[in-house]
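A protein record pairs a chain with a discrete description of its three-dimensional fold. The shape at a given residue is found from the number at the same position. Here is what such a record looks like in full:
>
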Amino acid sequence: MSNFMERFLSKAQGALIALFFASCFCVLFAGSAFAATTEVDGFTVDRSYSYGSYTVKVTKYNAVGSAVATDITLPVKAKFNDTEYTVEKVAVSFTEEQKNKIKSVTIPEGYTEIDTGAFKGMTALETVNIPATMTAISSNAFEGCTALKAVNFAEGGSRLQINMNAFNGCTALEEIHLPAHFTGVGNYRNPFRNCSALQTITVNEENTKFFTAENALYMKDGESAVLIAYPAGVAATDFTVPETANGLPVTTIGAFTFSGSKNLNKVVFSKNVIELKGFGFYENCENIKEIVLLAEELTLGNYDFDGLADDLTITVVNEAVKAAVLEKKSDADVVVDENAGSNTPVTDTVEAVLSLGDTPVFAEENSNITYTLYLDQAKNVNALKFEMEFNAEQVEKSEILPLGELNLLKSEWTEKNGKLILTAVLGTLGENTGFSIAEKTAIASVSVKVQDGVTGDVTATLSDAAAAAGITDAENPAVDGKADINPQAATATYTIISFDINGDGGISLADVAEAQRYYRIASDSADWSAAKVADVNRDNIVNLEDLVLLLAQIAF
């Protein structure tokens, strides 16, 4: 070997050795200079350098044994080298002991991200409080939190992405309310996959990206809507994806949309649905035996029809859609029916405006107050769904009676958060295209029984409404048209007058004196809210007749 080559190799070897030690030095230097940990309130907080910036994150809960708290609040600030930083990220690896004991987690303001799987498998966790500053809940963040019942989102943030499977398998979650700043999901995937008890999904009405219709979650996507999540705990056995929701055509079904829907037997996709993103019924949908696809052209994802009943039948409207289905599921039983869906009439416009009458009626013999529901106007309507709310401490359920062309198809009374709620469906079964009215028409009366001892205002509130043009199934009516509530007549109040004007528990001359203070005050007066307690004959003015009636109640 020439001297030149020996010198060259010697220098090359030296360079490689130098490079190796330099690399080791950089790794060690990086570990000491670009990462640091500290303990705050029993948590380990890490400040590390990655991808061009520092991230301050909580990485460990240090409590063991009896020191593990059932309710924890993550640290807000952490100090490194005498400088205080806001903690931004949840990246805790909880121990099995902690997962089986912690029931409540509060994430303070300042946090912006929950890391992938951060709370996964926390089987005791029942409540989590999420701040408005949170911008990303990563994939599988709460997966398998089988006791989780309450997810409380603070309002006021700028954006929030909830990624795929974030709440997968949260089987105790019955309701979820999403904030106005909820802006995205991961890859059109249902973040509430396999939440088998979930019955109610609501979204802040100020949200411009997401909304709900019939408790299903939709996302605006340009000029159309995507069905993201069907609440798997709903008791209905049939579901029809509407042609439109919130005025937008529903064209797409997201991934894992129906996962966990054990109650469903049949799902109908309207003609506007032209794309299924895949995995729609992938798991725990084994009771679904019938799928109806009404679109003339359809793009399917992978495994859309896996996880369904063995005797599943898929009905389509033409051979092209049949071929598309068989391409994805070669063993499917696909039936072509060109008239599929024709028994449900479709109209261009379905509109209704509902209101409550302002003169409820009280029946002393049974202590019932009856409120009247009106259609102020309607177009192409033959099915209506509405909700009325009452104070559960004041009244008990009684009855609802139809008054017009619509029959009572379904009614249900529930109690929630101190409210007694009536959910009812009025309609006419058949293939007619509905009726239209231009004049205000009474359609139903709703009665509630007043509880003993209740006095003062008893108010009914018309809280929700929907309409449809056609209905063939009384048990599971599809009501997805537009139904507005007259804001000036959304409530009706009946005031139960007590002769005990001063509220001292008895009736005496002191009550007459108290009533006399309001003498000649009428309902158009600014003082009426206080004076009406003395209007015992309900003629909207406190006068001599009221004082005489009061005197008649006193035992001298």
Q: What stands out?
A: The longest strand covers residues 368-381.
